[in-house]
Specification:
- The chain has two domains: 4-112, 3-Layer(aba) Sandwich (Rossmann fold), CATH 3.40.50.10330; 120-296, Tumour Suppressor Smad4, CATH 2.60.200.
- It is globular, with a radius of gyration of 19 Å.
- The protein is α+β, with helices and mostly antiparallel strands.
- The N and C termini lie far apart (48 Å).
- The protein contains nine helices and 13 strands.
- InterPro entries: ATP-NAD_kinase_N (IPR017438), Diacylglycerol/lipid_kinase (IPR005218), Diacylglycerol_kinase_cat_dom (IPR001206), Lipid_Phosphate_FormReg (IPR050187), NAD/diacylglycerol_kinase_sf (IPR016064), YegS/DAGK_C (IPR045540).
- Pfam families: DAGK_cat (PF00781), YegS_C (PF19279).
- It comes from Halogeometricum salsisoli.
- Residues 303-322 are annotated as: Disordered.
């Protein structure tokens, strides 16, 4: 039995890349383990880690990769295992961030790519009125992003059928449809080791990034090795026409007065009512959320395009967290 395992989600994307990934994996001697229903992916990853696999790759989208990481983490296997991604989903943000450009290229990266210690984000949440119960809730990792507000609720509204038919356009259309009726988030945000208040008010969205580079930053990827979370709070109803070309870039452009940007290792968020949070595309509901960075927690196979110290080209010579 090989110790290189591919955890395979046949329902990701349009199904064509998943079929291609399976064929290449079998040709290259991987043990392919297929998820058949919701929850399988996490359990298959746990099983692979329990068996001591040296390489565990996720074939699917960001949600599939999230479940694989969670499964390996639950078995305490992140220190001993190299993780990788074979992009078969709709958006494949994280694969792009680590320099993986397609299905076949992913297998080349798994074989010959550099191994880097990447950060993880970690969240706890509760829908209870009091935040006191947070301490007793289990933490859940995320690789790419944790989002709340318009972007999260719009993503939740993009159906599987629409994503198969339209790809990433399904998310765009869902966001435009949701814009007119979105009522805003009433949030209190604190950050840092002392939980200092950093923002209070009505927000359009809250974005907490680990791997994702947000529109307006003009970077190909975020810094995934600085031990910090990239936080953006967008004030509700900035004076923008969301239907015009480039609206996302203007919404999140650096220096805009409706934005609060932070680089922190710890974040606490209180919402006035329970809201949906998207963790790498998987949805949970909470009123209180605590997010922490886990520096260098996962050993990941990265492509030649991955930059461990990315610089925003709109700010020459300055790191992305300046």
């Amino acid at each position: 039995m090989t110790d290189r395992i591919l955890v395979f989600n046949p329902r990701s994307g349009d199904g064509k890349r998943s079929a291609c990934a399976r064929a290449i994996a079998e040709e290259r001697g991987y043990d392919v383990r297929e998820s058949r229903e919701k929850g399988d992916t996490l359990e298959l990853a746990r099983e692979a880690a329990r068996e001591g696999a040296s390489v565990i790759a996720a074939a699917g989208g960001d949600g599939t990769l999230n479940e694989v990481v969670r499964g390996v983490d639950a078995e305490g296997g992140l220190d001993e295992t190299t993780l990788g991604v074979v992009p078969c989903g709709t958006g494949n943000d994280f694969a792009d961030n680590v320099g993986v450009r397609g299905v076949e290229h992913a297998f080349d990266v798994l074989k010959n790519g550099r191994r880097r210690g990447l950060d993880l984000g970690s969240v706890r949440w509760t829908a209870e009125e009091s935040a006191d119960s947070l301490a007793g809730t289990p933490a859940r990792p995320f690789l790419n992003s944790c989002a709340c507000g318009l972007t999260a609720e719009a993503s939740a509204g993009a159906t599987r059928e629409a994503k198969r038919r339209l790809g990433v356009l399904a998310y765009v259309l869902s966001t435009l449809q949701r814009t007119r009726t979105f009522q805003g988030l009433q949030l209190d945000v604190r950050a840092g080791p002392q939980n200092d208040p950093v923002w209070t008010g009505e927000a359009l969205m809250l974005l907490v990034g680990n791997g994702r580079r947000f529109p307006g930053e003009r970077m190909r990827q975020a810094n995934m090795e600085d031990g910090l979370l990239n936080v953006v709070v967008v004030r509700n109803r900035p004076a923008l026409n969301y239907l015009t070309e480039g609206a996302a870039d203007r919404l999140l452009r650096r220096g805009a007065s409706h934005l609060t940007r932070l680089k922190v290792d710890h974040l606490e968020v209180d919402a006035s009512v329970p809201r949906q949070f998207s963790l790498d595309g998987e949805f949970v509901e909470g009123r209180h959320l605590r997010a922490d960075a886990r520096p260098g927690a996962v050993r990941f196979a990265v492509g030649e395009g991955y930059d461990p110290s990315p610089v925003d080209p709109t700010r020459p010579g300055r790191p992305d967290d300046a």
